[in-house]
Amino acid sequence: MSVKLKHIMVLTGEPSGDLHAGHLVKEIKRLNQNIYFSGIGGKNLEHQGVDLFYNIENLSVMGLIEVIMQFKQIKQAFDLFKKKLEHNKPDLLILIDYPGFNLKAAKFAKKLYNIKILYYITPKVWAWNKSRLKKIKLYIDHAALILPFEEKIYKKANINATFVGNPLMDNYPENISKPFLPKDNLLKKKTLIIGLLPGSRKTEVNNLFAIMIKAAQQISKYLQTCNNQRVTFIISKADSIKKQHIEMILKKSGQPNLFKISDMPVKKIFIQSDLVIAASGTVTLEAALCCVPTMIIYKMSWITYHIAKQVVKIKYVGLANLIVNREVMPELLQDDASCEKISSKAIYMLDNLKYFENQLQMVRKMLGNKGASYRTARLAIKML
Question: In the CATH scheme, what is the code of domain 6-165+369-383?
Fold first, then answer.
């Protein structure tokens, strides 16, 4: 006698969300193998055998203008989602990050089909658009929170929520020791290594990478002239970015030997690097968990930035800074993200690496223990 499979639909719209979605599906399968999974995602969900009806390659955008430019792809994905609900209603809908799309999906699924909904990696209501809490309360059955200070916000709003821990702790369960000289002997190294992480969205790479390259050249020139020190820059190429696109921008630099393009996991880049310069995003929290000194930079379209300034009410953009409520990772945003300011700050950080490493120790302590994916999987099973 065959067992009827339960159906879980998973929706995510960005590479980082797809990564966490893949881990979550893996944990759910360990608890219950009699489940069919469908959804919107990328290679990580695909690897877990999820029946994808839309691939997220064209959905990973940030900012008002950027979203408008991708409206056709977003509408296509949403239309497919509605069609799938109509023909194969899931027993549980799991939403992961990507709030603009996912809250609209939650409203549609709840109002028309009364589907149970679990939201993992919830909207950043503590940063902006607190009105989203009303939508979450109306349409979400349970929220799985990944930041410790979110629990108080959801409790005050009378929303069913559980702090499950941060999924990054599963990938970084212990402090990573680097096989390098002590930091006070750093300048005795023949070659320094600086990681460059220009982002996982094409718009980010277009806005930041050329500036990173110019800053890198200035850093190299200073270290060579003043300290007789060589430096190599490792460029982290996200899966969502084509290598040819990176190479095209790099080709214009005139000093290609300074740079190495890498598609290795960022953890390995962090282990090798003395310093990291990164686009704002989840990856900077990963850097914090590795205790690698990191500078956060970001640029967006002029209109998006000035709208954001009016609606975003937070002191910092970096998650590590927000968690400990102080700037443990220097931030250079918009006009401040110039090659001159980036290179100057990087040189200062290279002279004070031990200080910046020590500042990052508190981040890990505040994020709790590993097992976020497992705890969220248990919530999902209970909701089936």
Answer: 3.40.50.2000
Q: What is the predicted pLDDT for the residue at 68?
A: 59
CATH no. of 183-366: 3.40.50.2000
What six digits make up the tokens of 4? Answer: 């009827």
**What pLDDT does residue 4 have?**
85
Q: Please tell me whether residue 118 adopts helix, strand or coil conformation.
A: strand
Give the neighbor-by-neighbor strand order of the sheet with 259-262: 259-262, 230-236, 191-197, 275-279, 294-298, 331-333
Backbone angles phi and psi of 184, in degrees to 5: -75, -10
Amino acid code (one letter) for 339: C
Task: Give this prediction's pTM.
Answer: 0.78
Is residue 228 a contact partner of residue 187, using CB atoms and an 8 Å limit? Answer: no
DSSP per position, 190-212: SEEEEEEE--SSHHHHHHHHHHH
* Contact call for residues 101 and 78 (beta carbons, < 8 A): yes
Q: What residues of the chain score a pLDDT lower than 70?
A: 1-2, 58-69, 173-189
Give me the pLDDT at residue 186, please. 46
pLDDT of residue 368: 80
Nearest to 207 by CA among 134, 301, 287, 283: 301
CA 259 to chain centre: 24
User: Which residue ranges make up each domain of the chain?
Assistant: 6-165+369-383, 183-366
So what's the pLDDT on residue 289? 93
